[in-house]
Amino acid sequence: MDVERLLISKVIEESDLGPAAEIGITKEWFADPSSAQVWAMITEHKAKYGNVPSIGAVRKDYPTYKLLAAEEGLPYLVDQMRTHRHLVLQEAAVTDAANLIVRGQADRVSERLHQVLAELARSSAVSSDIDLSQTSEERLAHYAELAKLDGGLRGIPTGFPAIDRALQGSEPGQLITLVGPPKAGKSTSLLLMTKEANDSGYEPLLVGFEMSNREQYERLDSIRAKISHARLRSGTLTPKEQRQLERAIKVQASLPSFHMTQDASSVMTLTGLRAKIEKIDPDIVFVDGVYMMQDEEGEPSGSPQALTNITRGLKRMAQQIQKPIIISTQALESKMNGKKLRTDSVGYSSSFFQDSDALIGVENTDDPAIKRMIILGARNAATMETFYRWCWDPVEFIELEGNPFEGEGIDEDKAATYGW
Ligand SMILES: Nc1ncnc2c1ncn2[C@@H]1O[C@H](COP(=O)(O)OP(=O)(O)OP(=O)(O)O)[C@@H](O)[C@H]1O
User: Fold this and answer.
1) How many whole angstroms from 183 Cα to the centroid of ligand 1?
2) Rounded to whole angstroms, what are the CA distances from 48 to 18, 51, 119, 141?
3) What CATH number was assigned to the domain covering residues 148-416?
4) InterPro entries given for it (predicted)?
């Protein structure tokens, strides 16, 4: 059965592209080059004129392309096309894997196989249409579940109280972006959020492109132990701090898994990252320094187009894996208004703003110990600002009440110790 030709014939006969468009059939799905060309013509025609071209219009452009009489209905043919696509993808991946082994590159086989699994998951995605007139019970049950939260968060907490109140934690399918100029505290904020997820009973995966695993866990251990980060690094802890450190490490061991990876070369691309996530299966994913990732479509690393592809891909990935993804990236100081962040300060690409469910800025202030955090934009929350005092010796992060640079400054009694 020539599924490709049958599908094209049926789409033209019924003048209906809907079911095929819903599962995202593109010209790349067609093995036969002439069918691929006709498919491209049909989709372009639909985009331009709003309807599927007639047989006459197709014959005019492709006089030798043979259309068939398809007895089966469109949904059946679309399903067959999907199965056909899966077989093509699997065959290509197995052939590539065999070639890699022959060429002595067996270490790349699992990467290639994971790539095809990701592609299969993408083309298996079912759309989630609902008819509100038919889902009253379901929706009431959903709201009853929300009422049980009793003021608690809907999603996984970030640990930053004001941010959590505004965003209600991070939920499956969300992409949350932390942005800031160099050395503003993006990596630390992301680490604090990872720790908070872990402390709340979740298994996080922290992927870092900038810091080594050792740098990350030294920070984490000093935070958890509330000891001097500098003395921990130089091996000069006091006996009391040493005891605190040992206790903190014991606490960490009693928590759910905390996965950390700096295995940069294998997760530099979206496919590599997805493979890592599928292997570890964490509850929430954190990616530090997304602007250093490589685009799989060949755009130069760090270019606006590469970053657009990467943020689009990350948002789609969050939705497909149904887990929250929280990322950090760099803001362009040249695009900052004085010291203040704006939504277009996000380094190199506006797609961070467009694709993120929430864009959170981290910036330095005139006081080196005080950081400003701002919700620059969020799908379900208003913009707001909040201030934190960061202390590294001993490590402590405190959310401040109000704006310490206005009025009478910081009210120490009102400053709440953040998170730990
Ligand atoms: N042990 C420490 N003592 C004092 N300050 C520290 C210590 N460790 C980190 N810092 C400060 O924290 C800030 C860096 O934090 P962080 O790495 O989170 O920032 P970043 O925005 O991720 O940086 P980058 O631009 O490198 O990505 C710097 O201002 C640094 O001086």
Assistant:
1) 5
2) 16, 8, 28, 43
3) 3.40.50.300
4) AAA+_ATPase (IPR003593), DNA_helicase_DnaB-like_C (IPR007694), P-loop_NTPase (IPR027417)
Atom of ligand 1 nearest to the CA of 393: 3
When the candidates are 1.10.860, 1.25.40, 1.20.120, 2.60.40, the CATH number that belongs to 3-122 is 1.10.860
ipTM, 2 decimals? 0.95
- Print the SS3 string covering 345-401: HECCCCHHHHHCCEEEEEEECCCCCEEEEEEEEECCECCEEEEEEEEECCEEEEEEC
Which residues sit with their C-beta closer than 6 Å to ligand 1? 180, 182-188, 210, 229-230, 392
Q: Where are the domains of the chain?
A: 3-122, 148-416
Whose Cα sits closest to atom 5 in ligand 1? 392
Summarised one tens digit per residue, pLDDT across range 358-381 is 999 999 898 989 999 999 889 888
Question: What global pTM score does this model have?
Answer: 0.73
The alpha-helical segments, DSSP class H, found in 172-238 are 186-199, 213-225, 229-234
Q: Element (H or E) spanning 284, and its range?
A: strand 284-288
